[in-house]
Amino acid sequence: MFKKILIANRGEIACRVAATARRMAIKTVAVYSDADAGAKHVNVCDEAIHLGGSAPKDSYLRWEKIIAAAKATGAQAIHPGYGFLSENEEFAQACAEAGLVFIGPPPSAIKAMGLKAESKQLMEKAGVPLVPGYHGAGQDADMLQQEADRIGYPVLIKASAGGGGKGMRAVEQGADFATALASCKREAINSFGDDAVLIEKYVQRPRHIEIQVFGDSQGNYVYLFERDCSVQRRHQKVLEEAPAPGMTEAFRRQMGEAAVAAARAVKYVGAGTVEFIVEQKSGGAMTFFFMEMNTRLQVEHPVTEAITGQDLVEWQLRVAFGEPLPLAQDQLRIHGHAIEARICAENPDNNFLPATGTLHVYTKPACTAFERADEGVRMDDGVRQGDAISPYYDSMIAKLIVHGKTREEALARMDAALAQTRIVGLNTNVQFLRHVVKSRSFADADLDTALIPREEAVLFKQEPVGLAFAAAAAVALTLLREKSLETSDPFSKRDGWRSHALNVRRFEFEFHGEQALAELTYLHDGALRLATADASGTLVFAAGAGQEVTVQFNGERRVATLHQLGDVVHVFTAVGATQITVIDLLGHAGDAAAEAGRLTAPMPGKVVSFAVKAGDKVSKGQALAVMDAMKMEHTIAAPMDGTVAELLYSPGDQVAEGAELLKLTA
Fold first, then answer.
1. What DSSP state is assigned to residue 593?
2. Are 403 and 336 spatial neighbours (Cβ–Cβ below 8 Å)?
3. Who's near 283: CB < 8 A, 6+ residues apart?
4. Distance between CA atoms of 26 and 139, rounded to whole angstroms?
5. Are 62 and 40 in contact, with CB atoms under 8 Å apart?
6. 3-state helix/strand/coil string of 403-435
């Protein structure tokens, strides 16, 4: 077995590979950028080599530096993880030429499957079913429009060299095709250096089901069953589970054998995933079509590990070393059900806008890390409390994986684990994930890639805690802090005692953008009475362990975990979480009013283009600019009708969060 490997990646997957290597007594070398100098993956490896600047093109995509680092440290092999160079045939070839083992498929397999159009032609020859579409080399815009018209709308434009939902656009009608094509090509060239696209029929009510395959250098192949990845937003996966609900043994075998045929066609070695679009027909019948093959380990591989009891990274290492597959097809079994949730720094209520910031609080449920979760909860991450989520890389913070004997047990375990996941410092999708897990469609396994928009009414802008309890919790936290300042001096008491009239305190809050008031009355018997806009009654509270506070108000008694960051109190309860802002009028008396007409960057990133120029009249909601951040394009729209007074940046400029991009006059 290898004595030392270099992990050419960062974050969660670098930590994941290092964990298995450590268990197998293999030394590890980490690589890092300027932004990751103190990152978790640097600390968990035995050695670490600096690559360069924070942007991937200056560090994690500099394969010549990575190969030099491997040779300098005596590493025998390089594990690419996923993303970055994991599906780069030139890098795989360069490793071989440098005498290093690339822990992945041969360059020829990466090349064959790397371009979607060519891979589909190859799959057609291998007898794997394909979705109707255009997969040719011609890229003239008018010709592509004609092909889309021929296929029939809706169609899906996909970057030929793409992955991860980038460079992909659904087009409902011909009039929108040209604009969608231009945006898709722009995103593709920025992400992959190749703007070639293919066009496919957009399958109605599709499910996204993928098959985990493995091959070795002796010509053996197996499939480790399927994963259902249908729950997606913006063509990126949100929840993944295994096995796929409603899957019959016959259909599983049919898909598995097709996936193996795809791998065999390119003489595949190592871990790979063959992704299929599954069309659901009336009566429950299903038909599958080849979509693409990812020639690497997938983000969602832990659910396969949970139901099979196998360590897929160990399989990768053994196969790359030349060993045969650890098990044959008839030795593989499915045990129970597993679900994975991707916890991301983003705001689901604002079109999943990526977020940056510091993990001031990062509390995880009782769980294992990077281990087979045959029962219970596993959490894979590459961050620690106090770490910053930067704009340079993907927004994923962690992966939460649960396993149960049944799907119902796994669902209950997932909701409980999400309830115990508490993050303060930036927006996350944790509460959104809880809503998805409890939605009717997901709970009943009524799955397709449109689940999120279909369940929009119960997934977005939800408030499970409510103003009354949030205000009561914020008041309780204030009083507990005041009490902690009391001494034996009676004048230090904060109990509001008066000899005659009752003492009444006024609290002002902001809750979901609305002003809110609460009045706290100190009664002569020592009791407290709280009144909000929609509730009034006795307030009783008591401090518990850590940040826990038991709060009783308005007929409810809940244990809440409270964290205050600045003026914002974050309230975590078993039913959900919320936040409420305490308005300190004296503390903010000098703040200037917001300047009207300013249009600012919602996150750090790069200006891609402006759709307007100074002097143009615009309407509310009109697209004004396009920014690129966290490897995705984001459109900046006009907040009101007006006239563009001035553009303050040029395309290609890097801007900070909150930077004013242009001035708009009402």
1. P
2. yes
3. none
4. 47
5. no
6. EECCHHHHHHHHHHHHHCCEEECCCCCHHHHHH
SS3 607: strand
Cβ atoms within 10 Å, residue 286:
18
SS3 category, 345: coil
Main-chain dihedrals φ then ψ at residue 209, nearest 5 degrees: -120, 130
Determine which one of 10, 16, 207, 296 is catalytic.
296
What is the token pair recorded at 643?
A: 């006239």
CATH 3.40.50.20 correct for 4-103: yes
Contacting residues for 253 by C-beta, under 8 A, at least 6 apart: none
Residue 525 binned pLDDT confidence (cut-offs 50, 70, 90): confident
Are the C-beta atoms of 171 and 158 separated by less than 8 Å?
no
Sort 17 into a burial class: Cβ within 10 Å, 0-12 / 13-18 / 19+.
buried
pLDDT at 35 > cutoff 50: yes
Position 333: which residue type? R
The helix-helix angle for 177-192 and 141-151 (nearest 10°) equals 120
**Between the CA atoms of 293, 297, 299 and 301, what dihedral angle is there, to the nearest 10 degrees?**
100
Q: Which amino acid is at 454?
A: R
User: What are the backbone angles phi and psi of residue 566, rounded to the nearest 5°?
Assistant: 65, -125
Give the number of other CB atoms < 10 A from CB of residue 459.
24
List of residues 6+ apart from 24 with CB closer than 8 A: 1, 314, 317
CATH class of the domain whose range is 598-665:
mainly beta
- Enumerate residues 6+ apart whose C-beta is below 8 A from 301: 212, 271, 312
- Extract the tokens encoding 538: 């006795």
Residue among 585, 606, 574 nearest 510 (CA)? 585
Phi, psi of 304 (to 5 degrees): -70, -40
Q: Which residues of the chain does CATH 3.40.50.20 include?
A: 4-103
CATH no. for 467-582:
3.30.700.30
Within the chain, which residue ranges are assigned CATH 3.30.700.30?
A: 467-582
Burial degree of 31 (CB within 10 A; 0-12, 13-18, 19+): buried
Number of neighbouring beta carbons within 10 Å of residue 648: 15
Res 637: pLDDT:
84
**Distance (Å, rounded) from C-alpha 208 to C-alpha 231?**
8
> What's the mean pLDDT in 13-41?
98
| Phi, psi dihedrals of residue 365, rounded to the nearest 5° | -70, 165
Q: Residue 7: name the closest of 33, 36, 23, 30 by CA.
A: 30
Distance CA 172, CA 541 (A): 55
pLDDT digits (tens, 9 = 90+) for 107-125: 999 999 987 678 888 898 8
Determine which helix (DSSP H) or strand (DSSP E) holds 107, and give its type and residue range. helix 107-114
Q: How many CB atoms lie within 10 A of CB 94?
A: 19
pLDDT at 484 over 90: no
Choose the CATH number for 132-201 among 3.30.1490.20, 3.40.630.30, 3.40.50.300, 3.40.50.2000.
Answer: 3.30.1490.20
b/e code 395-424 from CB counts within 10 Å (16+ = b): bbbbbbbbbbeebeebbebbbebbbbbbbb
Q: What are residue 507's DSSP bridge partners? A: 518
Torsion, Cα 441 442 446 452, to 10 degrees, reads 70
Residue with tokens 């006795």: 538
Do you know the residue count of the chain? 666
77 phi, psi to nearest 5 deg: -150, 160
Q: Is 422 a catalytic residue?
A: no
- With b for 16 or more beta-carbon neighbours within 10 A and e for fewer, the 656-665 pattern comes to eeeeebbbbe
For the segment 255-309, what is each residue's pLDDT rounded down to a tens digit?
999 999 999 999 999 999 999 999 987 777 889 999 899 999 999 999 999 999 9
